[in-house]
Amino acid sequence: MSFINSFFEKKFEHAQSIFFDIRFLFFSFTLISSLGFLIIYSFLYGYYFSGNEIFQISNFNIISNLLPFSIQTLTITSIFFICIYYIISSSIPLIIKNKEKKGAVFISSALIVFLLNLSITTFFANEIKFTSILSFSLIWIFMVFTIGSIIGFLYAINIAEKHPVLMISATMFQFLLLAFIGKVLSIMKILEERVYLEFTTVLFIPCLFITLLIFRHYHSKKWFNFISCLPFSIIISMLLSLWLEGNNILSLSKKEIFIVIVSILHFAILKMVKYVQKKIEEKVESGAGEKVEEEKEEKQEEIKDNPAGNKSILYIAISKCYSALANKANNVVKLGMGVILLGVFVSLPRLSLLCGQSIRMINQDYERQIEFIYVNQSGKESNLIGNYYIENNSTLYISNKDWDLEVIKPVNYHIKPIDKKGKQN
């Protein structure tokens, strides 16, 4: 009987591990494919159809008016981005580990970067100029930013697991600080509110990473606890002041009511937050103690499967995210993951769009325009000057002379190239 029981237990454990592996693979595929598609699609949209004004198109507008880029274009562009990611992510550890051969590794990496950058420029640009080669290096800056965001993402997960209240406090503090800076810049007429909001959307993840670093470093200091609890005090005080003003309970101005409430509540909220934080961290530590044996077993299995212990930063980020979201006991961590993932899915495609648009704006003097002569549905002949087009099911998606999207469904059409002097060939 003991043999039969042990046999079925092993089979059950094996089936359970396969089930969890399938769930993890499905989660990883969904996350990578959806985010990867958004990044590649946004880059192509920014390069060909985003106009000449920065941040004039929303993420929703881009997705709702989905353009039928060919599978070949999406695949080749994806290959370029994947190559850039692996070159950066593998070069940094090589340079750090091989201290004696730093120069050789650096020169080899620089040569590979130059050749790949030249290949990307040849693929996208009409003319190979020094300016165009230099402009496509913006893709490398974008990928460095992306890898930095992944590192920040891992750090945020670590903070959310060990210090969830600190994570929430840092996020709220960043929102309030960015709103305050935006208001000051708008009043001083240094930067338009719309442009500032776009930049804060793009820079949300790195700003959160910096905020978390500061909060994590100083969270044990008494004077910093006074500052870190301000977001809770400000939000609660704003709600109370609006309620008191609406009911005419106090005969004071809105600002005076707000200052009075903040002064009274802040010390009480400080004590409350510290108490809640202590209780949650004790619970997290006790839960972590119960999982020590499980983690040891997992590590031993990982060493057997992968003796070198080499795991990519992307794999670590996805596994951390999956384990945090799969943890049913800690909803605070799930909340933090939701905020971070939302920021990633908004900011990275937005930055990719800006990257494509910036590269094209640098190179648009070298682009060759084309003329579309077409017969519309009413039988009238018209013409349109454009830069790029996609044809799908007899519908033309045209990037006009201002690089804005125009969609036409002609009965018949003819395309003529135009040289730089404006003459048709």
Strand order across the largest sheet: 4-3-2-1-5
**Tally of helical segments:** 15
Shape: globular
- List SSEs in N-to-C order: HHHHHHHHHHHHHHHEEEEE
Mean pLDDT: 75
Low-pLDDT stretches: 291-297, 299-309
Report how far the terminal alpha carbons are from each other. Answer: 87 Å
* Major sheet summary line: 5 strands, antiparallel
Q: Report the C-alpha radius of gyration, rounded.
A: 27 Å
Number of DSSP strands? 5
Q: Beta-sheet strand percentage?
A: 5-15%
Helix content: over 70%
The class by helix and strand makeup works out as: alpha+beta
Observed structural traits:
alpha+beta
Can you walk through the features of this model?
It is globular, with a radius of gyration of 27 Å. It is 72% helix and 8% strand. The chain has helices spanning 2-48, 59-64, 71-97, 102-124, 130-135, 138-162, 164-187, 193-202, 204-218, 222-228, 230-246, 254-290, 292-305, 313-326, 331-363, and strands at 370-375, 381-392, 395-400, 405-408, 412-417. Strand 1 (370-375) and strand 2 (381-392) form a beta hairpin. Helix 1 (2-48) packs across helix 3, helix 7 packs antiparallel against helix 8 (193-202) and helix 7 (164-187) packs across helix 9 (204-218). The model is unreliable at 291-297 and 299-309 (pLDDT under 50). The protein has 15 helices and 5 strands.
